[in-house]
Hints:
Elements: E1 4-7, H1 9-27, E2 33-38, H2 42-57, E3 63-67, E4 97-105, H3 109-119, E5 126-136, E6 147-153, E7 160-163, H4 165-168, E8 172-175
Parallel strand pairs: 2-3, 2-4, 4-5, 5-6
Antiparallel strand pairs: 1-8, 7-8
Amino acid sequence: MQKRLLLNSTDFEITIKRLCYQLIENHDDFGDSALIGLQPRGVFVASRIHHHLSSILNIRNICLGQLDITFYRDDFRKREISAPAETKIDFEVENKTVILIDDVLFTGRTIRAGMDALLDLGRPKKVELLTLIDRRYSRHLPIAPDYTGIQVDTIATEKVKVQWKEIDGEDSVWLI
């Protein structure tokens, strides 16, 4: 199967900024909101969103966290587990609107695990989901994003690869 470029670096940046403006429309100054990226690659999306929101709004205190879901996955006993990532949340989630962030939404099982892990930290007022890529028609669970970068129709054997400048040398999204 041939690789197909879904987002180049320019479109990638435009997509991230568009998501920021959608968030601003609903969260205003983010005083009661928090961004939480799911480990491992959702943290890159969350960090970029946080950076752009801070710059656009000229606010430095938007809550940003990282959530490890390793032991909340329903398949963690069936797969080889590398060392769990770190959960870094230095604010209360109680009564905040939490925006859970991941790079790719596929079956929905990762998001379910993220919600379980999040609820162990407190009871947010509301939880929203932001995903850079929404692989439609492949859910195992009834989960839908509130904010989506792009939607991609894929078959089960295809993969979506998100590359980040920080670790892969460039920003891009490929269908493989």
